[in-house]
UniProtKB/TrEMBL annotation:
Localization: Membrane
Keywords assigned by UniProt, alphabetized: Cytochrome c-type biogenesis, Membrane, Transmembrane, Transmembrane helix
UniProt name for this protein: Heme exporter protein C
Pfam family, one: Cytochrom_C_asm
Entry-linked PANTHER family: CYTOCHROME B_B6 PROTEIN-RELATED, HEME EXPORTER PROTEIN C
Tagged with keyword Membrane: yes
Length: 212
């Protein structure tokens, strides 16, 4: 992350039109991309729940959904800040922005349903189906700027994406940096979920012995 900050503020040149405000891009893009990775992981883990029935996959799907909602929420915030400078408005119902907001609400709702333990004993399968269905909006977000008339820039639409080589260097360094952050958060939350299950199992065992 430190190298990424150096690349943003010292290596990458200022964009001629927007100046320093454009540097929000180096936060916004990695957050958006890694949220897509997280939601793809939710879908993949949900498929594994239906295939194997193992609890670990259900836990992983929940962890990835949490990180995905966090990252996509931050992407919306940084995009709003950037939009205020670029379009003179905090929000516009552009196809890319609208589908991203829908995606955020869908996965936030998925987390609410997980916390409510919907489905009882078959809850893992119910959550898995929801995790798979929720992913349908993710490709739509990615393609929205190309399918409909959108003012949101499509970074990979043209060769080079309109960026100088130094800018691309800063982009990929920060993509890797946020990827490291993403992996760290996923491992930490997954480990914490495992400890929680062990504590709950131990408490149940203590209660059973007390009743006996």
């Amino acid at each position: 992350m430190a190298v990424g900050q150096y690349a943003i503020w010292f290596h990458a040149p200022e964009e001629l039109t927007m100046g320093l405000v454009q540097k929000i891009f180096y936060f916004h893009l990695p957050l958006a991309w890694w949220s897509f990775v997280a939601f793809f992981g939710v879908c993949a883990a949900s498929v594994m729940v239906l295939w194997t029935g193992r609890e670990q996959w259900d836990v992983l799907a929940g962890v990835l959904a949490e990180i995905g909602v966090l990252f996509s929420g931050l992407a919306l915030v940084t995009g709003s800040l950037w939009g205020r400078a670029a379009w003179n408005t905090w929000w516009t119902w552009d196809p890319r922005l609208s589908t991203t907001l829908v995606m955020w609400f869908v996965y936030a709702g998925y987390l609410v349903l997980r916390s409510a333990d919907v489905g009882g004993t078959k809850g893992a399968k119910v959550r898995a189906v929801l995790g798979i269905v929720a992913f349908l909006d993710v490709p739509l977000v990615f393609l929205s700027a190309r399918l409909w008339r959108s003012i949101h820039p499509a970074v990979l639409a043209s060769r080079g994406g309109g960026l100088e080589p130094e800018m691309w260097t800063a982009v990929w360094i920060n993509v890797l940096a946020w990827g490291a952050m993403f992996g760290t958060l996923v491992l930490a939350r997954y480990h914490g979920a495992g400890l929680k299950r062990r504590v709950e199992a131990a408490l149940i065992g203590i209660q059973e012995k007390t009743l006996q």
